[in-house]
């Protein structure tokens, strides 16, 4: 068992291959946190606690005259509220008597093999050959009977520990749960940097790293979705941590709605990190006997720097998260109509684009927004999922058939969570959207948000979308969401339950995805929210890939994909080649470079193929051929960041390395070219130091050590925004013939 309870010491020790986690039950039955870090022998670590009388830090009544026992100072596993601990609390309640206190004491525990599902929520699952053990600890407030069950699952080989919490009202009075964190973790020190992924629409997941200072550092979203602004992922690491050195802790939230992650450095240089649903406007009514399940946090520890931490997340999210069979299949190369036609198309125009795309070698034609109702702009028709016969004369079925006759698969865009005021749906059911009485709802992109907390609304969505999917031959669906939530109020919920609407929306979303996505395992679903506005593990449970950003500029994408790579594997990052001047930035980059950058994820095209020259189409075909040959390496290999685009401006480089280290692909883009510039070298990573490798374009054979230590010269002939890809393969393996022209070869 990877989880052990020592009855004498009253410690719980969780062991993964390379990490350990320990908690201890104290004399008064409080649950303390003792350790998370490098794997160590399983001994009682309570010697780390040094009881000290700390002025102005109160002592629980049962501590009697012992002034050294204070919950304000001791490291806690789940901090109680309204009693003794002034730091960030894990829970906030309003009890039947009007008080706010929750004091949880350990009542019992259970250790078992395997891992339970979370009710109504996405979470990691154990595969057959995974060793996973779980632990539940019951913390009960003796006065109110309210109980919090902390759940831990240990993925031993994969160095992952998951956490979640369930609150059960075992008392008699109705309780309001105003905050419940899925994870609280206390560290006895505070010399850490806090790294998080923040940004904005079209510039998601920028990397911010700053040392903790006294007080509280917060990231989060109150937008009803995980958001472009902050990703539900954070790292705490040594100040000295680099890609391959130092202690790093990762916290990733498997949830697609409001979230918060806070790190507090306290008066005694200790650190508390909490992660969970954002408590703002959250108030969940729990009548006697009712319960609430908080979503899962996936924790990882690396004692060898950030790359290893990323690899832990990449592996677990590749293998243990997504329910779709496509997660293990090679994904098609799509051409998407959005930047090619926007709302201005008919079936002949679409077929023309598709026909030319056949020559490029794409697999799937995706019809984006604009095919339904009176949708000639973004002002109307959301909710009316009926084809516009003026645009598609033979309907969706007819178009799909003709696309298939060209030898392509057919994909379709939908945005099921929204409604336009100018739509038949809104006219029939104005109360189906989120809006507060007497306050006209705010618009976003001219649209309103459907109230997914309502079963009848969910049923309508499921029925109308499933009807299309069942009637039409469709192999791919892009599921979009183009505004965030405001006016979170439901026409049918009682007033005491309006504080549940943000969360119930997300539950409704998961519920409709259960009934639409999981019932169509032959369709590849791709997530999107104006690009990466809902790029989170909750969505990745249903959709194996997500449109990474509405920004298709190759140079901006370098940063966006760099940030994304800290938590998410390349196999879930949709990246498309678009035209130049780029529609978002006006920048001009070579088509070769756009292909190299898009191959940092799931390659596709987002352009009007009828406007490409024969030469450009040929180049796209070669890109696709190369990509397909490298697909296994990109999707399943280990990803290495070779440069930090925030610290070094001249070029950005990254590398995919096969698990057996026999093959690698090193890609580099020049981002800031100067005249007569200094010679630069790019050092490979992740190769086998003792093995010998061929490198495309070089006659000699290099040792892995040499490629990682001395590196390769970056050709001075590369101009601004030009790219190069080096294919690296072990001298004792045969390399298949390399298609040329995908990238500049020296
Ligand atoms: C936002 C998406 O990110 C775009 O790719 C496109 O699908 C538009 N929505 C369509 O409205």
Gist?
This protein is α+β, with helices and mostly antiparallel strands and 746 residues long. 18% of the residues lie in helices and 31% in strands. Mean pLDDT is 96; it is low at 737-746.
Structural class: alpha+beta
- What's the number of extended β-strand segments? 37
- Averaging pLDDT over every residue, what do you get? 96
Principal-axes geometry comes out as globular
Task: Name the hetero compounds present.
Answer: (2R,3S,4R,5S)-2-(hydroxymethyl)piperidine-3,4,5-triol
The percent of residues in helical segments reads 10-25%
Largest sheet: 9 strands, antiparallel
* DSSP summary: helix tally: 12
State the end-to-end distance.
53 Å
Radius of gyration: 27 Å
Quaternary state reads: single chain
- Percentage of β-strand residues: 25-35%
Strand order of the largest sheet: 6-7-8-9-19-15-14-11-12
Low-confidence stretches: 737-746
